[in-house]
Amino acid sequence: MTDLILTEAEGEIRDLHAIAEADLEDFLAGQPAALVRLAELQGFKAKTGQLLVALGEAEAPIAVFGLGQGARADGMAFRALPARLPAGDYRLATAPSNVPPEAIALAWAIGGYRFERYRKTPKEGRARLLAAEGVDVAEVRSLAQAAALARDLINVPANDMGPAALEMAAREVAEAFGATAAVVVGDDLLDQNYPAIHAVGRAAVPARAPRMIELSWGEVGHPLLALVGKGVVFDTGGLDLKPSAGMRLMKKDMGGAAHALALARMVMAAELPVRLVVLLPVVENAVAGDAMRPGDVLASRKGLTIEVGNTDAEGRLILADALARAAELAPDLTLDFATLTGAARAALGPEVIPFYTDDDALAGELAAAGERLGDPLWRMPLWAGYEPALDSDIADIKNDPDAWAQAGSVTAALFLKRFAPDGAWAHFDIFGWNPRNRPGHPAGGEAQAIRAAYAVLKARYTRAE
Protein backbone atom coordinates (compact mmCIF):
# COMPACT_ATOMS: atom_id res chain seq x y z
CA MET A 1 0.00 0.00 0.00
CA THR A 2 1.41 3.37 -1.02
CA ASP A 3 1.82 5.76 1.92
CA LEU A 4 -0.49 8.68 1.30
CA ILE A 5 0.61 10.54 4.43
CA LEU A 6 4.02 12.20 4.22
CA THR A 7 6.27 13.14 7.11
CA GLU A 8 8.25 15.64 5.04
CA ALA A 9 8.06 17.30 1.66
CA GLU A 10 9.34 15.21 -1.25
CA GLY A 11 8.92 17.84 -3.96
CA GLU A 12 6.46 20.57 -4.81
CA ILE A 13 3.82 20.96 -2.11
CA ARG A 14 0.46 22.37 -3.10
CA ASP A 15 -1.63 24.39 -0.70
CA LEU A 16 -5.04 23.05 0.28
CA HIS A 17 -7.51 25.28 2.08
CA ALA A 18 -10.54 23.84 3.87
CA ILE A 19 -13.06 26.67 4.17
CA ALA A 20 -16.52 26.98 5.71
CA GLU A 21 -19.14 29.08 3.92
CA ALA A 22 -19.00 31.78 6.59
CA ASP A 23 -15.24 32.20 6.09
CA LEU A 24 -15.15 32.23 2.29
CA GLU A 25 -15.40 36.00 1.80
CA ASP A 26 -12.50 36.70 4.15
CA PHE A 27 -10.45 33.94 2.56
CA LEU A 28 -10.96 35.18 -1.00
CA ALA A 29 -10.08 38.72 0.04
CA GLY A 30 -6.49 37.61 0.47
CA GLN A 31 -6.25 35.58 -2.74
CA PRO A 32 -5.12 36.50 -6.28
CA ALA A 33 -7.76 38.03 -8.52
CA ALA A 34 -7.57 35.04 -10.86
CA LEU A 35 -8.66 32.69 -8.08
CA VAL A 36 -11.49 35.00 -7.04
CA ARG A 37 -12.69 35.18 -10.62
CA LEU A 38 -12.50 31.39 -11.04
CA ALA A 39 -14.55 30.91 -7.87
CA GLU A 40 -17.20 33.24 -9.33
CA LEU A 41 -17.25 31.46 -12.69
CA GLN A 42 -17.57 28.02 -11.10
CA GLY A 43 -20.12 29.08 -8.52
CA PHE A 44 -17.87 28.08 -5.66
CA LYS A 45 -19.59 28.95 -2.39
CA ALA A 46 -17.67 26.59 -0.06
CA LYS A 47 -20.73 24.41 0.25
CA THR A 48 -20.16 20.95 1.67
CA GLY A 49 -17.97 18.93 -0.67
CA GLN A 50 -17.35 21.66 -3.25
CA LEU A 51 -13.82 21.63 -4.63
CA LEU A 52 -11.98 24.38 -6.49
CA VAL A 53 -8.59 23.68 -8.05
CA ALA A 54 -6.64 26.49 -9.70
CA LEU A 55 -3.24 28.00 -10.32
CA GLY A 56 -2.16 30.39 -7.61
CA GLU A 57 0.73 32.81 -7.38
CA ALA A 58 3.88 31.84 -9.29
CA GLU A 59 1.87 29.15 -11.09
CA ALA A 60 1.69 27.03 -7.93
CA PRO A 61 -1.51 24.97 -7.82
CA ILE A 62 -3.99 25.74 -5.08
CA ALA A 63 -7.06 23.82 -3.97
CA VAL A 64 -10.02 24.98 -1.89
CA PHE A 65 -12.36 22.48 -0.25
CA GLY A 66 -15.80 23.52 0.95
CA LEU A 67 -16.94 22.60 4.44
CA GLY A 68 -20.44 24.05 4.27
CA GLN A 69 -21.59 25.10 7.75
CA GLY A 70 -18.45 23.51 9.19
CA ALA A 71 -16.69 20.17 9.33
CA ARG A 72 -17.63 17.40 11.72
CA ALA A 73 -14.93 16.80 14.28
CA ASP A 74 -14.37 13.24 13.01
CA GLY A 75 -12.70 14.63 9.88
CA MET A 76 -14.31 12.06 7.60
CA ALA A 77 -15.24 14.78 5.08
CA PHE A 78 -11.57 14.72 4.04
CA ARG A 79 -11.88 11.08 3.03
CA ALA A 80 -13.14 12.18 -0.39
CA LEU A 81 -10.13 14.31 -1.32
CA PRO A 82 -7.57 11.70 -2.44
CA ALA A 83 -10.05 10.51 -5.08
CA ARG A 84 -10.98 14.02 -6.23
CA LEU A 85 -7.74 16.01 -6.17
CA PRO A 86 -5.20 15.88 -9.00
CA ALA A 87 -2.22 13.68 -8.20
CA GLY A 88 0.43 15.50 -6.23
CA ASP A 89 1.49 16.41 -2.72
CA TYR A 90 -0.57 18.76 -0.57
CA ARG A 91 -0.37 20.52 2.76
CA LEU A 92 -3.40 21.76 4.63
CA ALA A 93 -2.73 25.49 4.67
CA THR A 94 -6.14 26.31 6.16
CA ALA A 95 -7.77 23.76 8.43
CA PRO A 96 -10.90 23.68 10.58
CA SER A 97 -10.01 24.33 14.22
CA ASN A 98 -12.42 21.71 15.57
CA VAL A 99 -10.93 18.76 13.66
CA PRO A 100 -7.81 17.07 15.07
CA PRO A 101 -5.00 16.86 12.47
CA GLU A 102 -4.77 13.11 13.17
CA ALA A 103 -8.40 12.68 12.12
CA ILE A 104 -7.79 14.49 8.84
CA ALA A 105 -4.69 12.42 8.11
CA LEU A 106 -6.47 9.15 8.85
CA ALA A 107 -9.49 10.10 6.75
CA TRP A 108 -7.16 10.96 3.88
CA ALA A 109 -5.26 7.67 4.20
CA ILE A 110 -8.46 5.61 4.30
CA GLY A 111 -10.03 7.59 1.46
CA GLY A 112 -7.11 6.87 -0.84
CA TYR A 113 -7.73 3.12 -0.86
CA ARG A 114 -7.84 1.37 -4.21
CA PHE A 115 -8.31 -2.29 -5.06
CA GLU A 116 -6.42 -2.94 -8.27
CA ARG A 117 -5.29 -6.56 -8.00
CA TYR A 118 -7.15 -7.60 -11.15
CA ARG A 119 -6.58 -4.49 -13.26
CA LYS A 120 -4.13 -4.81 -16.13
CA THR A 121 -3.28 -1.12 -15.93
CA PRO A 122 -3.58 0.38 -12.43
CA LYS A 123 -4.36 4.06 -12.14
CA GLU A 124 -1.30 6.27 -11.89
CA GLY A 125 -0.58 8.90 -9.26
CA ARG A 126 -2.07 9.70 -5.89
CA ALA A 127 -2.94 12.82 -3.96
CA ARG A 128 -0.76 12.70 -0.85
CA LEU A 129 -0.94 14.79 2.32
CA LEU A 130 1.93 16.29 4.29
CA ALA A 131 1.00 15.55 7.89
CA ALA A 132 0.66 18.46 10.27
CA GLU A 133 3.26 18.80 12.98
CA GLY A 134 2.63 16.49 15.91
CA VAL A 135 0.61 13.89 14.04
CA ASP A 136 1.55 10.30 14.91
CA VAL A 137 2.09 9.29 11.30
CA ALA A 138 3.13 5.75 12.22
CA GLU A 139 -0.20 5.09 13.91
CA VAL A 140 -2.18 6.75 11.11
CA ARG A 141 -0.44 4.52 8.59
CA SER A 142 -0.96 1.45 10.77
CA LEU A 143 -4.70 2.05 11.12
CA ALA A 144 -5.07 2.74 7.40
CA GLN A 145 -3.09 -0.36 6.50
CA ALA A 146 -5.26 -2.49 8.78
CA ALA A 147 -8.43 -1.10 7.20
CA ALA A 148 -6.95 -1.78 3.77
CA LEU A 149 -6.18 -5.36 4.82
CA ALA A 150 -9.82 -5.96 5.71
CA ARG A 151 -11.00 -4.38 2.45
CA ASP A 152 -8.51 -6.32 0.33
CA LEU A 153 -9.50 -9.65 1.87
CA ILE A 154 -13.18 -8.93 1.29
CA ASN A 155 -12.66 -7.72 -2.27
CA VAL A 156 -10.73 -10.78 -3.44
CA PRO A 157 -13.21 -13.20 -5.04
CA ALA A 158 -13.80 -16.64 -3.60
CA ASN A 159 -11.83 -18.45 -6.30
CA ASP A 160 -8.70 -16.75 -4.92
CA MET A 161 -9.84 -16.35 -1.30
CA GLY A 162 -10.61 -19.87 -0.17
CA PRO A 163 -10.00 -21.21 3.33
CA ALA A 164 -6.31 -21.86 2.64
CA ALA A 165 -5.78 -18.34 1.29
CA LEU A 166 -7.47 -16.80 4.33
CA GLU A 167 -5.29 -18.98 6.54
CA MET A 168 -2.22 -17.70 4.69
CA ALA A 169 -3.31 -14.10 5.23
CA ALA A 170 -3.68 -14.79 8.96
CA ARG A 171 -0.28 -16.44 9.09
CA GLU A 172 1.31 -13.44 7.36
CA VAL A 173 -0.13 -11.06 9.94
CA ALA A 174 1.02 -13.37 12.73
CA GLU A 175 4.54 -13.58 11.33
CA ALA A 176 4.77 -9.81 10.90
CA PHE A 177 4.13 -9.23 14.60
CA GLY A 178 5.62 -12.30 16.22
CA ALA A 179 2.34 -14.05 16.96
CA THR A 180 1.92 -17.82 16.89
CA ALA A 181 -0.60 -19.59 14.68
CA ALA A 182 -2.33 -22.93 15.26
CA VAL A 183 -4.68 -24.33 12.61
CA VAL A 184 -6.99 -27.35 12.75
CA VAL A 185 -8.14 -28.57 9.32
CA GLY A 186 -10.72 -30.97 7.90
CA ASP A 187 -11.64 -34.09 9.87
CA ASP A 188 -9.18 -33.07 12.59
CA LEU A 189 -11.86 -30.58 13.61
CA LEU A 190 -13.85 -33.54 14.95
CA ASP A 191 -10.89 -34.83 16.93
CA GLN A 192 -10.25 -31.34 18.35
CA ASN A 193 -13.94 -30.81 19.24
CA TYR A 194 -15.05 -28.28 16.66
CA PRO A 195 -18.04 -30.27 15.37
CA ALA A 196 -20.21 -27.35 14.21
CA ILE A 197 -17.41 -25.86 12.13
CA HIS A 198 -16.82 -29.25 10.55
CA ALA A 199 -20.52 -29.76 9.80
CA VAL A 200 -20.85 -26.43 8.00
CA GLY A 201 -17.68 -26.81 5.93
CA ARG A 202 -17.49 -30.54 5.21
CA ALA A 203 -19.28 -30.34 1.84
CA ALA A 204 -16.49 -28.27 0.28
CA VAL A 205 -13.87 -29.98 -1.87
CA PRO A 206 -10.78 -31.18 0.05
CA ALA A 207 -8.66 -28.27 -1.17
CA ARG A 208 -11.15 -25.93 0.49
CA ALA A 209 -11.57 -27.92 3.70
CA PRO A 210 -12.91 -26.13 6.80
CA ARG A 211 -10.48 -25.00 9.45
CA MET A 212 -10.15 -23.26 12.79
CA ILE A 213 -7.40 -20.65 12.95
CA GLU A 214 -6.10 -19.49 16.32
CA LEU A 215 -3.49 -16.73 16.65
CA SER A 216 -1.85 -15.92 19.99
CA TRP A 217 0.22 -12.86 20.89
CA GLY A 218 1.33 -10.94 23.95
CA GLU A 219 2.70 -11.59 27.40
CA VAL A 220 1.25 -13.83 30.07
CA GLY A 221 -0.13 -11.69 32.86
CA HIS A 222 -1.73 -9.10 30.64
CA PRO A 223 -5.54 -9.04 30.29
CA LEU A 224 -6.76 -11.54 27.70
CA LEU A 225 -8.52 -10.03 24.68
CA ALA A 226 -10.36 -12.42 22.35
CA LEU A 227 -11.26 -11.36 18.80
CA VAL A 228 -13.56 -13.70 16.87
CA GLY A 229 -14.50 -13.40 13.19
CA LYS A 230 -16.88 -15.30 10.93
CA GLY A 231 -14.92 -16.69 7.98
CA VAL A 232 -17.39 -18.06 5.43
CA VAL A 233 -15.34 -17.60 2.25
CA PHE A 234 -18.41 -18.22 0.12
CA ASP A 235 -21.97 -18.90 1.12
CA THR A 236 -24.21 -20.74 -1.32
CA GLY A 237 -26.80 -21.13 1.41
CA GLY A 238 -26.12 -24.85 1.46
CA LEU A 239 -29.08 -27.08 0.66
CA ASP A 240 -31.31 -24.09 1.45
CA LEU A 241 -29.78 -22.62 -1.68
CA LYS A 242 -29.68 -18.86 -2.10
CA PRO A 243 -31.08 -17.36 -5.32
CA SER A 244 -28.46 -15.96 -7.70
CA ALA A 245 -29.05 -12.38 -6.55
CA GLY A 246 -28.51 -13.41 -2.94
CA MET A 247 -25.29 -15.22 -3.82
CA ARG A 248 -23.68 -12.42 -5.84
CA LEU A 249 -21.86 -10.74 -2.95
CA MET A 250 -21.20 -13.81 -0.85
CA LYS A 251 -17.47 -13.55 -1.36
CA LYS A 252 -17.76 -10.97 1.44
CA ASP A 253 -19.20 -13.46 3.93
CA MET A 254 -15.72 -13.86 5.40
CA GLY A 255 -15.77 -10.15 6.27
CA GLY A 256 -16.00 -10.87 9.99
CA ALA A 257 -12.72 -12.78 9.90
CA ALA A 258 -11.17 -9.99 7.85
CA HIS A 259 -12.29 -7.44 10.44
CA ALA A 260 -11.06 -9.47 13.42
CA LEU A 261 -7.69 -9.92 11.71
CA ALA A 262 -7.46 -6.21 10.86
CA LEU A 263 -8.29 -5.19 14.42
CA ALA A 264 -5.71 -7.66 15.70
CA ARG A 265 -3.17 -6.00 13.43
CA MET A 266 -4.00 -2.61 14.97
CA VAL A 267 -3.61 -4.02 18.49
CA MET A 268 -0.29 -5.71 17.78
CA ALA A 269 1.16 -2.76 15.86
CA ALA A 270 0.36 -0.50 18.81
CA GLU A 271 1.83 -3.06 21.23
CA LEU A 272 -1.15 -2.72 23.54
CA PRO A 273 -0.54 -4.44 26.89
CA VAL A 274 -2.89 -7.35 26.27
CA ARG A 275 -2.63 -11.06 25.69
CA LEU A 276 -4.41 -11.43 22.37
CA VAL A 277 -6.13 -14.46 20.90
CA VAL A 278 -7.73 -14.33 17.44
CA LEU A 279 -10.23 -17.07 16.61
CA LEU A 280 -11.26 -17.48 12.98
CA PRO A 281 -13.58 -20.34 12.01
CA VAL A 282 -13.18 -20.60 8.24
CA VAL A 283 -15.45 -22.60 5.92
CA GLU A 284 -17.11 -22.68 2.54
CA ASN A 285 -20.84 -23.36 2.82
CA ALA A 286 -21.05 -25.59 -0.23
CA VAL A 287 -23.56 -28.01 -1.73
CA ALA A 288 -22.64 -31.69 -1.97
CA GLY A 289 -23.88 -35.12 -0.99
CA ASP A 290 -22.55 -34.79 2.55
CA ALA A 291 -23.77 -31.24 3.18
CA MET A 292 -25.67 -30.69 6.40
CA ARG A 293 -29.42 -30.91 5.93
CA PRO A 294 -32.41 -28.98 7.27
CA GLY A 295 -33.53 -30.92 10.30
CA ASP A 296 -30.08 -32.24 11.22
CA VAL A 297 -29.01 -31.94 14.85
CA LEU A 298 -25.40 -30.88 15.32
CA ALA A 299 -23.07 -31.21 18.26
CA SER A 300 -21.18 -28.12 19.39
CA ARG A 301 -17.99 -27.47 21.31
CA LYS A 302 -19.95 -26.20 24.30
CA GLY A 303 -21.94 -29.42 24.45
CA LEU A 304 -25.25 -27.88 23.41
CA THR A 305 -27.05 -29.61 20.58
CA ILE A 306 -28.24 -27.42 17.69
CA GLU A 307 -31.14 -28.22 15.39
CA VAL A 308 -30.49 -26.91 11.87
CA GLY A 309 -33.69 -25.34 10.64
CA ASN A 310 -31.97 -23.47 7.81
CA THR A 311 -28.58 -24.32 6.30
CA ASP A 312 -28.25 -20.67 5.25
CA ALA A 313 -27.98 -19.64 8.90
CA GLU A 314 -24.53 -21.18 9.03
CA GLY A 315 -22.46 -18.26 10.32
CA ARG A 316 -23.85 -18.52 13.83
CA LEU A 317 -23.02 -22.24 13.84
CA ILE A 318 -19.31 -21.77 13.23
CA LEU A 319 -19.22 -18.80 15.61
CA ALA A 320 -20.78 -21.01 18.29
CA ASP A 321 -17.71 -23.24 18.33
CA ALA A 322 -15.30 -20.28 18.15
CA LEU A 323 -17.03 -18.44 21.00
CA ALA A 324 -17.04 -21.61 23.07
CA ARG A 325 -13.29 -21.83 22.53
CA ALA A 326 -12.95 -18.21 23.63
CA ALA A 327 -14.96 -18.98 26.78
CA GLU A 328 -12.48 -21.70 27.74
CA LEU A 329 -9.75 -19.05 27.87
CA ALA A 330 -11.71 -16.80 30.28
CA PRO A 331 -11.02 -13.54 28.41
CA ASP A 332 -11.27 -10.12 29.96
CA LEU A 333 -13.11 -8.95 26.83
CA THR A 334 -14.44 -10.68 23.72
CA LEU A 335 -15.42 -8.93 20.50
CA ASP A 336 -16.89 -10.84 17.56
CA PHE A 337 -17.49 -9.60 14.03
CA ALA A 338 -19.75 -11.23 11.48
CA THR A 339 -21.63 -10.48 8.28
CA LEU A 340 -24.46 -12.29 9.97
CA THR A 341 -27.95 -11.10 8.99
CA GLY A 342 -29.84 -9.27 6.31
CA ALA A 343 -32.11 -8.11 9.13
CA ALA A 344 -29.31 -5.83 10.36
CA ARG A 345 -29.34 -4.05 7.00
CA ALA A 346 -33.12 -3.80 7.02
CA ALA A 347 -32.88 -2.15 10.43
CA LEU A 348 -29.93 0.20 9.94
CA GLY A 349 -28.82 0.05 6.31
CA PRO A 350 -25.31 -0.62 5.02
CA GLU A 351 -23.43 2.14 6.88
CA VAL A 352 -24.59 1.97 10.51
CA ILE A 353 -23.44 -1.15 12.35
CA PRO A 354 -25.59 -2.67 15.08
CA PHE A 355 -23.79 -4.07 18.08
CA TYR A 356 -24.99 -6.09 21.03
CA THR A 357 -23.70 -6.30 24.58
CA ASP A 358 -25.04 -6.61 28.11
CA ASP A 359 -22.14 -4.51 29.40
CA ASP A 360 -23.44 -0.94 29.70
CA ALA A 361 -19.99 0.57 30.25
CA LEU A 362 -18.61 -1.14 27.15
CA ALA A 363 -21.67 -0.08 25.15
CA GLY A 364 -21.16 3.53 26.17
CA GLU A 365 -17.48 3.46 25.24
CA LEU A 366 -18.19 1.94 21.83
CA ALA A 367 -21.02 4.34 21.03
CA ALA A 368 -18.97 7.37 22.06
CA ALA A 369 -15.95 6.22 20.04
CA GLY A 370 -18.10 5.56 16.98
CA GLU A 371 -19.59 9.06 17.16
CA ARG A 372 -16.23 10.73 17.77
CA LEU A 373 -14.43 8.91 14.96
CA GLY A 374 -17.15 8.82 12.30
CA ASP A 375 -17.34 5.02 12.54
CA PRO A 376 -21.11 4.71 13.00
CA LEU A 377 -22.42 2.19 15.52
CA TRP A 378 -25.81 1.67 17.13
CA ARG A 379 -26.50 -0.42 20.22
CA MET A 380 -29.30 -2.95 19.77
CA PRO A 381 -31.05 -4.85 22.57
CA LEU A 382 -30.39 -8.43 23.58
CA TRP A 383 -34.12 -8.67 24.17
CA ALA A 384 -34.78 -11.63 26.44
CA GLY A 385 -38.40 -11.80 25.32
CA TYR A 386 -37.26 -13.25 22.00
CA GLU A 387 -35.19 -16.09 23.49
CA PRO A 388 -38.07 -18.62 23.33
CA ALA A 389 -37.99 -18.24 19.53
CA LEU A 390 -34.75 -20.25 19.62
CA ASP A 391 -36.27 -23.19 21.49
CA SER A 392 -36.10 -26.50 19.63
CA ASP A 393 -38.51 -29.41 20.06
CA ILE A 394 -35.70 -31.97 19.88
CA ALA A 395 -32.42 -30.16 20.66
CA ASP A 396 -31.05 -27.57 23.09
CA ILE A 397 -31.36 -24.71 20.61
CA LYS A 398 -32.11 -24.13 16.93
CA ASN A 399 -30.42 -21.88 14.41
CA ASP A 400 -33.56 -20.50 12.75
CA PRO A 401 -35.78 -18.59 15.17
CA ASP A 402 -39.56 -18.81 15.05
CA ALA A 403 -41.11 -16.28 12.71
CA TRP A 404 -43.09 -14.57 15.45
CA ALA A 405 -39.90 -12.98 16.83
CA GLN A 406 -39.23 -11.20 13.51
CA ALA A 407 -36.09 -9.39 14.73
CA GLY A 408 -33.54 -11.49 12.87
CA SER A 409 -30.42 -9.62 13.95
CA VAL A 410 -31.53 -9.64 17.60
CA THR A 411 -32.31 -13.35 17.63
CA ALA A 412 -28.99 -14.13 15.93
CA ALA A 413 -27.21 -12.22 18.70
CA LEU A 414 -29.23 -14.09 21.33
CA PHE A 415 -28.11 -17.36 19.73
CA LEU A 416 -24.46 -16.30 19.96
CA LYS A 417 -24.92 -15.19 23.56
CA ARG A 418 -25.63 -18.81 24.52
CA PHE A 419 -22.05 -19.68 23.52
CA ALA A 420 -20.18 -16.46 24.39
CA PRO A 421 -17.80 -16.12 27.36
CA ASP A 422 -19.24 -15.01 30.69
CA GLY A 423 -17.18 -11.81 30.79
CA ALA A 424 -17.61 -8.65 28.75
CA TRP A 425 -18.67 -9.49 25.20
CA ALA A 426 -19.87 -7.50 22.21
CA HIS A 427 -21.16 -8.75 18.88
CA PHE A 428 -21.00 -6.61 15.70
CA ASP A 429 -23.37 -7.50 12.84
CA ILE A 430 -21.33 -5.82 10.10
CA PHE A 431 -22.01 -5.39 6.38
CA GLY A 432 -18.41 -4.97 5.23
CA TRP A 433 -19.36 -3.43 1.92
CA ASN A 434 -19.98 -0.11 0.16
CA PRO A 435 -22.98 -0.67 -2.13
CA ARG A 436 -22.57 2.68 -3.88
CA ASN A 437 -19.48 4.22 -5.40
CA ARG A 438 -18.51 7.71 -4.27
CA PRO A 439 -15.22 9.57 -3.69
CA GLY A 440 -13.36 8.06 -0.76
CA HIS A 441 -15.87 5.21 -0.53
CA PRO A 442 -15.32 3.03 -3.60
CA ALA A 443 -17.91 0.33 -4.18
CA GLY A 444 -16.64 -2.88 -2.62
CA GLY A 445 -15.18 -4.03 0.65
CA GLU A 446 -15.36 -1.66 3.60
CA ALA A 447 -13.89 -1.71 7.10
CA GLN A 448 -16.55 -0.96 9.70
CA ALA A 449 -16.56 -0.66 13.50
CA ILE A 450 -12.89 -1.56 13.95
CA ARG A 451 -11.64 2.04 14.29
CA ALA A 452 -14.11 2.59 17.11
CA ALA A 453 -13.28 -0.78 18.66
CA TYR A 454 -9.54 -0.03 18.52
CA ALA A 455 -10.05 3.34 20.20
CA VAL A 456 -11.92 1.64 23.05
CA LEU A 457 -9.22 -1.02 23.40
CA LYS A 458 -6.44 1.55 23.36
CA ALA A 459 -8.15 3.66 26.03
CA ARG A 460 -8.98 0.66 28.22
CA TYR A 461 -5.70 -1.14 28.13
CA THR A 462 -3.30 1.78 27.98
CA ARG A 463 -5.04 3.07 31.11
CA ALA A 464 -4.74 -0.35 32.73
CA GLU A 465 -1.01 -0.64 32.07
Overview of this protein structure:
- This protein has 465 residues and is α/β, with parallel strands linked by helices.
- The protein has helices at residues 24-29, 33-42, 81-84, 101-111, 137-155, 163-177, 188-191, 195-201, 244-247, 255-269, 315-328, 342-348, 360-373, 408-417, 450-464, and strands at 5-6, 13-19, 51-55, 61-66, 88-94, 127-130, 180-185, 211-217, 224-229, 231-235, 275-285, 297-298, 306-307, 333-338, 353-356, 377-379, 397-398, 424-429, 433-434, 444-445.
- The chain starts with a strand and ends with a helix.
- Strands 7, 8, 9, 10, 11, 14, 15, 16 and 18 form a 9-stranded mixed beta sheet that branches.
- The chain is elongated.
- The model has no long low-confidence stretch (mean pLDDT 96).
Please give a handful of descriptors for the protein shown.
465 residues; alpha/beta; 9-stranded mixed sheet; 6-stranded mixed sheet; 20 strands; 20% strand; elongated
Chain-wise SSE layout:
Elements: E1 5-6, E2 13-19, H1 24-29, H2 33-42, E3 51-55, E4 61-66, H3 81-84, E5 88-94, H4 101-111, E6 127-130, H5 137-155, H6 163-177, E7 180-185, H7 188-191, H8 195-201, E8 211-217, E9 224-229, E10 231-235, H9 244-247, H10 255-269, E11 275-285, E12 297-298, E13 306-307, H11 315-328, E14 333-338, H12 342-348, E15 353-356, H13 360-373, E16 377-379, E17 397-398, H14 408-417, E18 424-429, E19 433-434, E20 444-445, H15 450-464
Parallel strand pairs: 1-6, 2-4, 2-5, 5-6, 9-11, 9-14, 10-11, 13-17, 14-18, 15-16
Antiparallel strand pairs: 3-4, 7-8, 8-11, 12-13, 15-18, 19-20
